[in-house]
Amino acid sequence: VVFMEQLLLRCDTLTRKVEEYSATTKNPESLVATIIRELSIIRQQAMIKGLGPIADSAGSLGIQAGRGSQTQRTRVLREGINSFKQLLERVMKATIGADERKRHENEVAMAKLKGDN
Description:
The structure is a single chain. The protein has 117 residues and is mainly α. The chain is elongated, with a radius of gyration of 19 Å. The model has no long low-confidence stretch (mean pLDDT 92). The chain starts with a helix and ends with a helix. The longest helix is centred in the C-terminal third of the chain and has 47 residues.
């Protein structure tokens, strides 16, 4: 969950970079390359953590960011980062819920063990 919270902060940084990219006229390719590189790093880290859907989403967004005109890339990145944030929030909520259920099951099992003794 901590990793996903860090990713949400990185999404805010990416959003600022996308806005900078949309407004720039000087060397926009270097900005988009930075964004694509960051998405690639996020993808790799998510794969290491075993978060396949997050890694897939970051990877596909990075590929889409490399195509089209500056206007098209800006639109794709804005929409893609918003979708990525929503995915992160859903996965975080599901992970927290699963942890709470598992903790409750463990407490019930421990209570039963204590009751049997």
